[in-house]
Write a structure and sequence with these properties.
single chain; about 325 residues; Sulfite Oxidase, Chain A, domain 2; Pectate Lyase C-like; 7 helices; about 15% helix
């Protein structure tokens, strides 16, 4: 009975962890950490635009909210208790105009990364959090202030928030402009938008293995299973949420490749170069990783083994300098 209740809490294809992996940026812009000059600005379609200092923000009514969080890279952390100020408290002060329908949140970061949500959803559940489980947030998890949106994948919860804009129309956020789903409902597995290449373009990739025309472009949700890209120079290729099962990458140069959330089960990566790659949320069960170079890769929530599936072959695998803290417990044991 208890197991069934737990299963009902876990969205499709998520892994529960006691860790709190770091995904995405790990540092804000420097001005985020100077509390003497830090500001939270609220503007847009409101009657009373307002700016708070950090001290003023902490004087607002504080609440404690416990919820589960679910990252798009397939990890889930349960029973997180956040402390902070409800969005609805801020909204009550600034008084949204009838024209306000969406809210944009902007971060203190080198790229001003942002996200957006419907105003109604913000009023229902968004929290401005400064602490988690009784301790201030760590910098890499959003100190001094982040948003938390419990019903959406965690990229809809913004670290290092500095500005809130009430808008009449929606705008796509940083991750959403790169192909992440704008709704981000984890029960519907709204991780990414659908594939962004035509069937003819996918067939051409399979035949030629030539990705040069897509340099700098993120390719999403493609089905390339069983393709032969052995020995190819695929430096910097970005294949997110793709079916790459059984693909032959033996000896390929994949330096800087991004395979976030892709399925690489049974892929042949023998002696491939994946240095500086992004393998967050990647499935690697049954893959041949012998003598593969994965120096300085990120591996948050990547899976090398899973009950009922063959383990990855890892003889000679080079993980020098790899970011391993994000590996979940059973993967560490492997």
């Amino acid at each position: 009975m208890e197991s069934t209740a737990m299963e009902k809490r876990i969205p499709p294809r998520q892994q529960v962890t006691a860790k709190f992996p770091v995904v995405g940026e790990r540092q804000p812009s420097p001005e985020a950490l100077d509390l003497s000059t830090w500001r939270l600005a609220v503007s847009g379609e409101v009657t009373h635009p307002r700016t708070w200092t950090y001290a003023e923000f902490l004087e607002l009514p504080q609440v404690s909210v416990t919820c589960d969080i679910h990252c798009v890279t397939r990890w889930s952390k349960l029973d997180c208790t956040w402390e902070g100020v409800r969005f609805s408290t801020i909204a009550e002060i600034v008084k949204p105009l009838p024209t306000a329908r969406f809210v944009q949140f902007i971060a203190y970061s080198s790229r001003d990364h942002d996200t957006s949500l419907p105003l109604e959803l913000c009023q229902q559940e968004v929290l401005f959090a400064h602490s988690m489980n009784g301790a201030p947030l760590s910098i890499e998890h959003g100190y001094p202030l982040r948003t938390v949106t419990p019903s959406r994948y965690f990229y809809k919860s913004l670290k290092w928030v500095r500005e809130v804009r009430f808008l009449p129309e929606d705008v796509l956020g940083y991750w959403e402009r790169g192909g992440y789903h704008n709704h981000a409902d984890y029960w519907k597995e709204e991780r990414y938008v659908s594939g962004n290449l035509s069937p003819q373009q996918v067939a051409q990739l399979r035949e030629t293995g030539d990705f040069r025309r897509y340099a700098g472009q993120v390719l999403l949700s493609l089905d390339l299973h069983g393709a032969d890209f052995s020995g190819r120079d695929l430096t910097g290729v970005a294949l997110k949420h793709c079916n790459l099962t059984g693909v032959n990458f033996a000896g390929a140069n994949l330096q800087g490749a991004n395979f976030t959330n892709s399925d690489l089960r049974y892929a042949n990566l023998y002696r491939a170069n994946l240095d500086d790659g992004d393998l967050d949320g990647t499935l690697l069960m049954g893959a041949d990783l012998r003598y593969c170079s994965m120096r300085r890769v990120t591996l948050s929530a990547a899976e090398f083994c899973r009950p009922g599936e063959p383990e990855a072959l890892v003889e000679g695998l080079d993980l020098t300098g790899a970011y391993l803290d994000g590996l979940l417990e059973e993967q560490w044991a492997f």
